[in-house]
Amino acid sequence: MLVKNTFFALVVSSFSVSASVDKTDWTPTPQQFKYCTVCHGNQLMGNPNIGAPRLSGLSAWYIEKQLQAFKQGKRGMPDQSVPAHEMQSMVKELSDEQIHQAAIWASKTQSPVPSETIVADAKAGESLYKQCAACHGADGKGNQTIGAPALAGLHDWYLLNQFDAFKSGSRGNVQGDSQAQQMQAAANLVNSEQDLKAIVAYIQQLEKHEEHN
Amino acid sequence: MKQHFSRRQFLNLIGAVGGSSALLKASLAMGLMQSNDFQGPVSVAPVKGKNKAKVAVLGAGISGLSTAYELERAGYDVVIIEASFRAGGRNMTVRHGDKIDEMGHTRYCQFDQDENLYFNCGPARIPGHHKRLLHYCRALNVPLQIKANSNQLAYIQDEKINGGKPIRQVDYRADANGFLSEMMSKSIDKGAFEQQLSEEDTENFLSYLKAFGSLNEKGKYTGSDRAGSQRDRMLFPPTPKAPMPLHDVFKSDVWRGVSFASQIYDWVEPLMEVKGGMDGIVKGFLRNISSPVELNAQVRKIHNLSDGVEIAYEQAGKLNTIKVDYCFNNIPAYFMAGIENNLSPDYLNALNKFKRGHLFKIGFQMRERFWEKEGIYGGITYTSQDNAQLWYPSHDIHAAKGVMLGAYCWDEKQCARFEAMTPEQRFKYAAQCGENIHPGYSGYIENAVSIPWARMNNQMGCGIHMEKEDWEHCLPILQKPDGRHFMIGDQISQHSGWQEGALAASQQALSQFNQLQASITSSHGAAYVS
């Protein structure tokens, strides 16, 4: 250890330490999950520089399912994307109970809605989104009964990445996971990059509308 | 797929990971940076009046520690907030029992409990012109010793040459110099320089070439005793080895890459290292700083206010918010997008242009210093295999055991291959690579550590960089404060990945701080002249 007890005893005496300004919105990070916020950021707000998606706003059931998919090698194998594999190595050593707890905590976090990074025709996206709405809901909030996650509130760059992953088969190509396979099939119905971006731009707007309510 | 050394890889490492001299010139012209003749650290304007100004330093790496040290000496009230369980950042030396906090693969160093058995996971060498760092080593009483960085008796191992068997660097050197000299001699005979050279000049030049390349009387290179002898040269006349095929000498990427390593400015010899491990510098700062260092404290929020900065950090599940007058931020720039902040859009945009760098190291504890039996005392073997380099320790010669570096990769693809493995898989792979250089290598390995900097907790990279066009535009923005918030760290220098770069950034920010202080004080009617 480089730093010995010398400094631990010193409380930031001359610095007035106050309770947080935004305490009402703030969910503490459990000690065992402090690694998560290194990449996913404060309140799991996401960090495009690391390729880490925003997780606040997702449902616990979906987060748990995905963490299990990482653990079981259905997502994030070395031949897939680098951030996905980085995620896999984080989850590999977690127990089922830890995964369960992590999902509950993540679903409680609250963070600002991400701003758009993609310029596209959200209006055109609105009609294209209708085919997605059947599963993910008109409001983009998802549907647990059929295993469709919320899309509203995810970063647009992340939605694009995942869409590409489904399309290329690096995600969703899992035997026995009919929901993932269904999404893979759906991804192949979108033909152009332009359409895809329009859909993503529309999804971005959903959460914004929600914020104004 | 194997990666080969390229000169580009070398140049990338020399801190040139992004960067341009045009920008440096611009910075000099703006008076932001000192020219090369460092005269001592920036003298920080001392605290005036009764109320000590408060400063938060985010990150206890070399840049943060030196900033805190200078501010504290000038009378400021400083707190250092560090996300990791330890101070030092990438200045990290591991010994028996130390935690290696890799994301997803936490391990503990299993080296024997012996002060000689340590591994410098980050910076490991200091050239004599890194004056800022050497200033602090002197000021903080950090003992230094000479470190052999190059060793002519160490190897080049190139899978394309000599059936993949290693060749001593001295053999390459003798043959390359010999062939070059012979070719030059022949070109002179053809009269290429007749216009410029007198007969006497030509004779002198030829004689120099003969000496340079060890040519015979006829100006031919036929091998040289500079590369040793095939028989015991103490008892028998030297019998030089036959030269390697000319084709092989110049074909080797590895050899080409390292031929001039010791002529690269940051590696000009002699180099130095800290006695007992590079973290002696961290310990030196900590001995001389009384400001609190808050460990295990992740910064959650940085808000510029009109008269200060509000910072929130989470420690043991508790959110602490402090208000300070100034903030010096050493956090890797790519993390800023995950920290709530109100920095200006230009400033944030510049921060978001930074990309994570990849560097990978392995340290092996060897039961015997087998390399010394091969006549290798310190220095580096270079290889075309994924492990890229082997470093032999210069310290504790002839001790029973030693820790040597078993891989040091700068190439992103090589790093990615190691990063994707578990530590145990990495050790096995690097051991196999080592076998092709030193037969029996694996058998000497007692235990190991691996440091993929792009996977280390709270770092997620080393050798941070930007696209060149972005760099020229963004660095000047980040070398100025945004409100009362200053960026520091090697990231805000032209020498990413070097402690000297970290210190230069800190010094640069402190001189900006003096200017800001002066303008604030003068606007209150009590001018401070720095």
Automatic annotation (TrEMBL), chain A:
GO terms for molecular function: electron transfer activity; heme binding; iron ion binding. Keywords: Electron transport, Heme, Iron, Metal-binding, Periplasm, Signal, Transport. GO terms for cellular component: periplasmic space. The keyword Electron transport applies. Heme c 1 binds at residues 36, 39-40, 87. Heme c 2 binds at residues 132, 135-136, 183. It is found in: Periplasm. Binds 2 heme c groups covalently per subunit. Gene3D superfamilies: Cytochrome c-like domain. Residues 1-19 form the signal peptide. It holds the Pfam family Cytochrom_C. The keyword Metal-binding applies. Residues 24-110, 120-207 form the Cytochrome c domain. This is C-type cytochrome.
